[in-house]
Design a protein that fits this description.
Helices cover about 35% and strands about 10% of the residues. It is of the alpha/beta class. It has one domain: Alpha-Beta Barrel (TIM Barrel), CATH 3.20.20. The strands form 5 sheets. The protein has a 5-stranded parallel sheet, with helices on one face. A 3-stranded parallel sheet has the order 9-11-13, with no helix packed on it. Strand 2, helix 1 and strand 3 form a beta-alpha-beta unit. The longest helix has 21 residues. The protein starts with a strand and ends in a 5-residue tail after the last helix.
């Protein structure tokens, strides 16, 4: 029987292919609000559908279910899913034929959303809006292009494609991880550029993408030294003044994974969550750390989401399997994928 619990702020990951008793205990905590799935949680489309159904049956409102499914090297589910090319491929199309690139971007969003939705997921943490400066190995071919105009146009079509597939999109990594060379998974990157340059270049794509209906934003674990001493995910300047204020974004702000080295500046797990939520994040992710998840949930207590409507807007829309639709088959053709 489902437990009635308002959504909390924590997004957690289960251990394996099905929920364990420890998983259920964590996901039934009042502070839990979502589940992120990784490659280790995937064996087949049938197994994934069973796992998401098990997660949805735990509580009401249902927990949000998401993953990182961008294409290229960041695609958690392979067998039974279309192989999506790295996002840089869309930028290369843009350089040859802008209209064809826009169609392909829309198609990629639709295919990703339709295939994830068919297995019970709500959304993916995509698209990447970082500019391709050629200096960040962790971003690399995940970036669409180096030109902010190209990134904004292609990402806006990705967002519309996700929507056509029944899903909202999440832009990352605000205000931009493309210039900083260090990988925030294992280090604390710093970007020493002037704020005006970051706003003019890296932030520019967010305007058309927000206008296209962007549902969520994930800030970078990068310190922009000319703006704040803390990483963007802990910075009220970036999240409240720029993202909410200047850009007018009213969607859900997710922290990046708090287990990453780039998040370490705030202290332990509880302090990291407090810093992210205090700066303006709505939800916080903690992955690959079951013990830390226990401490996180204990620190959050029974505090519900401040603006639950933002989370509700992230839910998958439409109940039918869009893989059976004409739009899905046409999208595969636009991507030059086999139907």
């Amino acid at each position: 029987m489902r437990r009635r619990l308002p959504l909390g702020a924590a997004v957690l990951d289960p251990i394996g292919l099905a929920l364990t008793d420890d998983d259920r205990k964590r996901l039934l905590h009042p502070a839990a609000g979502g589940v992120i799935l990784f490659a280790r949680n995937y064996q087949s489309p049938e197994q994934l559908a069973a796992l998401t159904a098990e997660i949805r049956a735990l509580r009401t409102p249902e927990l949000l279910i998401c993953t990182d499914h961008e294409g290229g090297r960041v695609q958690r589910f392979r067998e039974g899913f279309s192989a999506i090319a790295p996002m840089r491929s869309l930028g290369l199309r843009w350089d040859r034929d802008r209209d064809a690139a826009r169609r392909a971007a829309h198609a990629a969003g639709l295919v990703i959303a339709a295939e994830l939705g068919a297995q019970g997921l709500d959304f993916s943490f995509a698209p990447v809006l970082d500019l391709d400066y050629g200096s960040s190995s962790v971003i690399g071919d995940r970036a669409l292009h180096f030109d902010p105009i190209a990134v904004g146009a292609l990402a806006a079509e990705l967002v519309r494609g996700f929507a056509a597939g029944g899903s909202r999109a999440v832009g990352k990594h605000f205000p931009g991880h493309g210039f900083a060379a260090l990988d925030s998974h294992v280090a604390v990157p710093r970007d020493e550029r002037a704020v005006a340059e970051i706003l003019r270049k890296d932030v520019a794509p967010y305007r058309p993408v927000i206008a296209a209906g962007l549902g969520g934003v994930m800030p970078a674990h990068v310190i922009y030294t000319q703006a704040d001493r803390e990483p963007a995910g802990y910075s009220a300047y970036w999240l409240k003044e720029i993202l909410r204020g200047q850009l007018g974004f009213d969607g859900l702000i997710f922290s990046d994974d708090l287990s990453m080295a780039g998040a370490s500046t705030a202290g332990g797990v509880a302090e990291r969550a407090s810093a992210a939520l205090g700066a303006g994040c709505d939800m916080v992710l903690l992955c690959n750390d079951p013990e830390g998840q226990g401490r996180l949930l204990e620190s959050l207590g029974k505090l519900p989401l401040a603006v639950p409507q933002r989370a509700e807007r992230m839910r998958r829309r439409g109940g039918r399997d869009l893989r059976k639709s004409v739009a899905y088959r046409e999208a595969l053709q636009d991507l030059a994928l086999p139907a």
